[in-house]
């Protein structure tokens, strides 16, 4: 089968790999339909998130079960499934506490990071790491279940109530999903973004959207809110903690979500104690959140359509899930897929930002969620495989 393999920072290639096979009695082989390109994939390629050279990348994926081991009970051949790529052992101390995302036996279990992932035609996994996709939830929306699980975990960590005012830094797919979920609980949600394309997309779904390009985001946001500080800030950019700490109200919570191994920020503990600020890292998600994300995705996707509007042009927030995937590419065109998100390498980013001098120019985006399709079979009008 064809598979996109990580070689070293800035370098990946399509290789021929043996097709996935059942190894254990509880394994399933999934024929991959599509995999969402994650910020983490890009950070790996930019050398800002560690991954094992030689690994097949990709982890936000949906597909169809093609083979099942003798002990498999929860899914059958032909079932549409979504992959939970956060594998865990189930018996170490954190796992027994339910904190499966902090499993002590993580090495070699992170799909698409240090265990072969899903930018490939097939993958084999224990059955407990695939969930059936509800009938009526299109693959195109189901591909967002994994990032949605991550978002649910982080929003839960913020313990939102209806009197909270929230700022979400970043309007990428994670930022948009965070704003969507937070808006179900908090009084007001404001989204801050620097990229023109993403600002436009955010304005289609949210009332309070602030352009912070070329400015200090904390100052700009305070200006637009007449000095009112948010009680909760989610930093989905991975580089916004400094701004978040200057922006947050006394007694507030800052949730750090983006990953960037190269970003550091000086922290004065007194600022936290005097002002009662909580800085929260929630990581990805515990196993019990994943089925919740499956159900919520179905709920969000099943939002009522207003009569007289076409199913795809409604700008209601509730249809965000359907509209978050803006681009799809076949596996062979992976360079284009990454290019739509700012490029594969630091040099690509510098070229696109038109400022070769700066060491970290802001990436420019022409896309929200980009999906790489692994499926060669017949596809429907929306570019996705015809229902089996
Ligand atoms: Zn991801
Ligand atoms: Zn464990």
From TrEMBL:
Residues 174-298 form the Alcohol dehydrogenase-like C-terminal domain. PROSITE patterns: ADH_ZINC. InterPro entries: ADH-like_C (IPR013149), ADH-like_N (IPR013154), ADH_Zn_CS (IPR002328), GroES-like_sf (IPR011032), NAD(P)-bd_dom_sf (IPR036291), Zn_alcohol_dh (IPR050129). Pathway: Metabolic intermediate biosynthesis; 2-deoxystreptamine biosynthesis; 2-deoxystreptamine from D-glucose 6-phosphate: step 3/4. It catalyses: 2-deoxy-scyllo-inosamine + NAD(+) = 3-amino-2,3-dideoxy-scyllo-inosose + NADH + H(+); 2-deoxy-scyllo-inosamine + NADP(+) = 3-amino-2,3-dideoxy-scyllo-inosose + NADPH + H(+). Its cofactor is Zn(2+). It holds the Pfam family ADH_zinc_N. It comes from the Bacteria. Residues 25-134 form the Alcohol dehydrogenase-like N-terminal domain. Belongs to the zinc-containing alcohol dehydrogenase family. DOIA dehydrogenase subfamily. Catalyzes the oxidation of 2-deoxy-scyllo-inosamine (DOIA) with NAD(+) or NADP(+), forming 3-amino-2,3-dideoxy-scyllo-inosose (amino-DOI). This is 2-deoxy-scyllo-inosamine dehydrogenase. It comes from Kitasatospora viridis.
């Amino acid at each position: 089968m064809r598979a996109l393999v990580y070689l070293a920072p800035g370098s990946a290639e399509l290789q021929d790999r043996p097709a996935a096979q059942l190894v254990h009695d509880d394994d399933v082989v999934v024929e991959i339909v599509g995999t969402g390109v994650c910020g983490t994939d890009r950070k790996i390629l930019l050398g800002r998130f560690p991954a094992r050279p030689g690994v097949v990348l990709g982890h936000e994926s949906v597909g169809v079960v093609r083979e099942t081991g003798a002990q498999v009970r929860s899914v059958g051949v032909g079932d549409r499934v979504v992959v939970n790529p956060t594998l865990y052992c189930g018996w170490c101390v954190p796992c027994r506490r339910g904190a499966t995302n902090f499993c002590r036996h993580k090495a070699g279990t992170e799909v698409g990071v240090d265990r072969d992932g899903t930018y490939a035609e097939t993958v084999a996994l224990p059955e407990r790491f695939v969930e059936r996709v509800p009938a009526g939830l299109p693959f195109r929306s189901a591909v967002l279940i994994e990032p949605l699980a991550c978002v649910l975990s982080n929003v839960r960590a913020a313990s939102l109530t209806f009197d909270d005012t929230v700022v979400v830094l970043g309007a990428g797919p994670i930022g948009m999903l965070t704003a969507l979920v937070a808006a179900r609980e908090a009084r007001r949600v404001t989204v801050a973004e620097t990229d023109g394309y993403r600002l436009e997309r955010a304005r289609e779904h949210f009332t309070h959207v602030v352009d912070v390009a070329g400015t200090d985001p904390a100052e700009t946001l305070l200006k637009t809110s007449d000095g009112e500080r948010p009680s909760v800030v989610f930093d989905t950019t991975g580089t916004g903690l400094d701004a978040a700490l200057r922006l947050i109200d006394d007694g507030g919570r800052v949730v750090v979500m983006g990953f960037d191994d190269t970003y550091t920020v000086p922290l004065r503990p007194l600022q936290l104690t005097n002002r009662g600020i909580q800085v929260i890292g929630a990581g990805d998600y515990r196993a019990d959140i994943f089925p919740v994300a499956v159900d919520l995705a179905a709920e969000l996707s099943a939002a009522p359509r207003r009569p007289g509007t076409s199913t795809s042009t409604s700008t209601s927030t509730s249809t965000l899930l359907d509209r978050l995937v803006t681009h799809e590419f076949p596996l062979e065109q992976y360079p284009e897929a990454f290019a739509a998100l700012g490029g594969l390498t630091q040099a690509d980013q510098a070229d696109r930002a038109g400022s070769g001098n700066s060491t970290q120019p802001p990436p420019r985006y022409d896309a929200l969620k980009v999906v790489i399709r692994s499926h060669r079979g017949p596809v429907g009008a929306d570019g996705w495989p015809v229902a089996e």
